[in-house]
Amino acid sequence: MLSRLSRPKAVALCALPVVALLATAALAPLPFSVAQPGMTANVLGENKGAPVITISGAPTRTTKGQLRMTTIVATGPDVRVHLGDVIDGWNRTDRAVMPRDAVYPSGNNLQEIERHNTEQMKQSQDAATRAALKYLKLSDKDVKVTLKLADVGGPSAGLLFTLGIIDKLQGDGHGGDLTGGRTVAGTGTIDASGRVGAVGGVALKTQAAYRDGASVFLVPRAECTDAKAELPKGLRLVPVTTLKSAVDALVSLEKGTGTVPTC
């Protein structure tokens, strides 16, 4: 025998599964990482008491201005990210919600991730050195470059390392600095031939750069749209595709001549 439920009781009974589902979704860990602007470091200066770039076998210049590599900080692979964290990240301009696999493609083991990031950084530093010396027409048999940046992994500082080596050895080629005395920031991978590659997290890196005093940001051209998404007012985007295009753009900015590309 079935009894008839009143309308309020029926609505309440039907709502119970929905409430339970929402509660489960709110408490369940999700496969995301939440990222925010990270530290920046001037590759022309020191990091944690040690020079970032050390060169022997060739005379070096005293530089002015700064070339700041940029980073993001993401929740670790073992951190439980919940629905509330994701919603909060979506609603903030200084946060980004990313698939965990995109942030940590090498797995969930912290030691594996650290090894992977360290190896990527080493490869990036080697490529940066080769690209810079090739651009300057110098031999790695004569010039030794050591790059050191504590607590940072991955390949995204490649472009800035390369520009830093060039600025220390040659500057703009006419006695001036590549930076023109400015604080220039940027991001981008680089290979030994000087090609610049995309990296991800650019919208957060522009915020880190502006926070730390940059007025110019070098960005891989393929990431112009992402870079403009949350671009701080007063930060100038300069898209690049190669080492030569980056150097040419900086020299044009310094001299006030030529065309400086824009996103």
TrEMBL record:
The keyword Signal applies. It holds the Pfam family Lon_C. InterPro entries: Lon_proteolytic, Lon_Prtase, Ribosomal_Su5_D2-typ_SF, Ribsml_uS5_D2-typ_fold_subgr. Residues 1-28 form the signal peptide. Keywords: Signal. SUPFAM superfamilies: Ribosomal protein S5 domain 2-like. Residues 153-240 form the Lon proteolytic domain. PANTHER family: ATP DEPENDENT LON PROTEASE FAMILY MEMBER. This is Lon proteolytic domain-containing protein. It comes from Streptomyces macrolidinus.
